[in-house]
Design a protein that fits this description.
alpha+beta, Pseudouridine synthase, 35% strand
Amino acid sequence: MQKLKVIYEDNHIIVVEKPVNIPSQGDKTEDIDMLTIIKEYLKEKYNKPGNVYLGLIHRLDRPVGGVMVFAKTSKAAARLSEEVRNKIFQKTYLVVANGKMEKEKGTLEDYLLKNERNNISKVVKEGTKNSKQALLDYEVLKYNKEINLSVLRINLHTGRHHQIRVQLSSRNHSIYGDQKYGGRGHGKQIALWAYSLKIVHPITKEEMEFKSLPEINGTWKILESIEV
């Protein structure tokens, strides 16, 4: 069983670091997933027989690691899901992207259309049937001229399919290691990490922020001298 890194836990929620290449929930690969791993952890820790309740509130793509929150009660799950809908739930990502951004900070707005058949999204014109608005803010934390890569901090305002990957690649700033959307570094792990999560606690109403940083090695060595 995969070792679980718990960032925070109380009677209502559990916040963990999702490792890369583990699905958020079960899929057709039948590989071990986060829901299963956390349920096993809770069963063992609290010596609970039978099935354990665990609510999935949000997902991270399989190749992406970082902070995730799960609900331990249905009441907490309902309230956190409401926060997602009302955009109180704030997710911030770190990205290593190709090239130098035109501005130090900015907002990217597009309309995305998902192709269910090949599981790829693309930027389309506003008004295209079934397209959805995608909005994010970015800030450049560092640009390394020698390797022509930028470290960006990204705040998501909408949670579209492959949103960060598509919006950056459509502007020739593909994420390093992103083979699906034309990134450099083929065969490398995609350099996209969910590093901060802000929520309002579903029961105490306290504002909380949880953070997790990728290990500073490989592509992420570029983070070494950065204040995140």
